[in-house]
Design goal:
This protein has about 120 residues and is an alpha+beta fold. Helices cover about 40% and strands about 20% of the residues. The chain contains 3 helices and 2 strands; from the N terminus they run αββαα. It has helices spanning about 20-35, 60-65, 80-110; strands at about 35-45, 50-60. The chain has a two-stranded antiparallel sheet with strand order 1-2. Strand 1 and strand 2 (about 50-60) form a beta hairpin.
Length: about 120
Amino acid sequence: MTSRFPEGGRFPEPYGQGSGANLADILERVLDKGVVIAGDIRINLLDIELLTIKLRLIVASVDKAKEMGIDWWETDPALSSRARRDELTRENAELRERLARLEELESGHAPREAP
């Protein structure tokens, strides 16, 4: 008679149980080392390029990305409040300069009143 139980008399643990530590280890390794996925899709018709899509995906920790020289999120106003403030400060200075030039032009070319 054959047994319905696996060797050792125990069934393997259900999927998802006990794999949390393994998933955390894998995620930690991926973020520590980084993963790059790159690909291009080109659609040509009679040797005429109609569409090119370039896909680039990098999965890494912030520290690893900075180590690789990737830090675009620090200067993107949509993602960084400091970059947004810097952009507003620069824009404000440019507008003040333009206003000063306009006021200077206006005062220098103002029509004189007839005596």
